[in-house]
Amino acid sequence: xxxxxEVKDCFINLRGVDEVRGLAERAAREGAGxxxxxxxxxxxxxxxxxxxxxxxxxxxxxxxAGIMATEFVDALRPHLPIPTIRSKGKVIIGTIEGDIHDIxxxxxxxxxxxxxxxxxxxxVDVPPERFVENVEKLKPDILAISCLLTVGLxxxxxxxxxxxxxxxxxxxxxxxxxxxxDFAEELGVGYxxxxxxxxxxxxxxxxxxxxxxxx
Length: 215
Prior knowledge:
Elements: H1 3-12, H2 17-30, H3 34-53, H4 59-76, E1 89-95, H5 103-114, E2 117-121, H6 128-138, E3 142-146, H7 153-165, E4 171-175, H8 181-187, E5 190-191, H9 195-205
């Protein structure tokens, strides 16, 4: 079994922290690509999520998968290239109010950082007003909002509405399990299906227009 299949299987079957750390070290020795490793991990996590939805896995299993994901990325981090170019932009990132999940947010943060973006992580369960306050204070190039639960969708909409009401022309990107491209297009913001695509979207947004203020 190749390293990418091993990584995917490790997450699907929740083989534990020691196993996933060992795979990270092996991947580094073999020169496996970081994006490909993240994609393999994501595929494994997607299966875990599906099994949870079907009642085959439990909350404790989701927590274990999250711990494994954090350990995997942390073990890979020392082997990642350090950007030598000037910052491509400042990104404020957080998980919307009502959602305390941080796996996706952390993966996107890592990928953006590796690709030259300055990251300001304001945590989880962030209300729309705090997103807006941070945009006003820190003046980022991009506001990235993560959401894993459908309960967070109204908060994302309110955040975008508040940005428009205040005339803050920041570029916005959203992503997470319940987010669809149609929802993002309805709001007029960028859509990142996963951490790898989030980098492409961020690069596109820094060369384009942000959320337009209301007329």
